[in-house]
Amino acid sequence: MWKSVKIIGQGGFGLVKMAKVDQEDEDGHLPPVIAIKSVPLVHLESLQKEREAFSNLEGSPYLVHCYKADASKEDSVLYYNLLLEYAYGGSLADRLKHGGRLCEEEARKQTKVHMLVLAVLNILCDLLMVSNCDNEFWIGIVLPSMTWHRLEQALM
User: How many domains does the chain have?
Assistant: First the structure.
């Protein structure tokens, strides 16, 4: 169904890869290039929670689209995968790190989006968890079930 092309990101549990979709896309709903976020099955729960958050926020123009989840096997290891919209422009951080600049209009648009994200997080976050695991701190945000439509109403 899809074939990994290259790794575009790596985290503590898994990888994000750019992938090409085969002609045999049974649903016919996938574009030719997608991003695949993969974790070994032992870390399935973290990606399932992320899938649920994507489902709750479906329709948001500020998030990449999550098409579906699937499973794969590489080198006898089972992986849980989220099939995501590929963001051709990359991240804002990557752009700025590599000497990119924003014109005034782009800076205004990015500021608006970031302020909206902060407002959404303020509404969504009912619990902020901080954990110390092997002297490395991480922060996780627990999101209640709230749809994008309800968020828009809360922000208006």
Answer: 2
Q: Which tokens belong to 29?
A: 């709903």
Residue 94 lies in a domain: no
Phi, psi of 107 (to 5 degrees): -60, -40
Please say if the pLDDT value at position 92 is more than 80.
no
Output the pTM of the full model.
0.68
> Would residue 59 be called left, alpha or beta, if left means φ above 0 and alpha means ψ between -120 and 50 degrees?
left
- CA gap 134, 152 in Å, rounded: 39
CATH number for the domain spanning 33: value is 3.30.200.20
| Residue 37 known to bind ligand | yes
Domain that holds residue 20: 1-89
**What whole-number distance in Å separates Cα of residue 28 and Cα of residue 107?**
36
CB count, 10 Å around CB of 19? 24
